[in-house]
């Protein structure tokens, strides 16, 4: 009886450590793949053009149109709505103290430092990050990536770099647009609901904003762009199991991107608050 119990315990331990070992090996493999993806992206973006291997400029501009230009309507709509909501909620509290003019300060600073880059990045993560994962995942399922490699083409150069460059350029541009549109939403509430003059509101907005408000928002948007691009590409390369795998990794790319965006936003907000 004791020998039987001992053998059962040994079997359970073997199963546990076997499962743990497989998990650790799988995690280490994923970490190494991310490491290689980042290094290859840096090389093909900055080092390769210097030694004459070039960039895919045409593909980069095509990606800019898909990532940036085609996202303008949804970014404008959501940013204007956020500006409206922020102005109304701010005025609801400030009018108790007869300080509704400070609605301009709150809307301008919150939009440029926080809501503009954050909401734009979340929109792009849901719209373009998922598209990147689905596109690369479908190519992997269809063995198109292996075909590129067999012909001597580097998948990172042809698939990843144009998307990363497009996001790094267009997300800050969309953020600037979102800032102005969000402030315009605050202006509309101030003029038509709060009886604040247009010129007075704009002057207060200009007085409230400083140069570092815009800079911090743009720095955040650039980091968000890199996170969205790398996450989408990574999830695309990790696709397994056909169409079901494409859908699963596409969903994961959106969830992970938004999670990383929130973490990065908290980190940079703390850094700028204490150091700048």
Task: Outline the structure in words.
The chain is mainly α and 276 residues long. It has one domain. The protein contains 9 helices and no strands. It is globular and about 80 Å long. The mean pLDDT is 89.
Question: How many separate helices?
Answer: 9
**First CA to last CA: what distance?**
70 Å
Low-pLDDT regions: none
Q: What is the ordering of alpha helices and beta strands?
A: HHHHHHHHH
Largest β sheet strand count, sense and barrel closure: none
What characteristic shape results from the CA principal axes? globular
- Number of folding domains? 1
Number of strands: 0
**Would you tell me the overall average pLDDT?**
89
Strand content: under 5%
The helicity comes to over 70%
Q: Over all CA atoms, what is the radius of gyration?
A: 24 Å
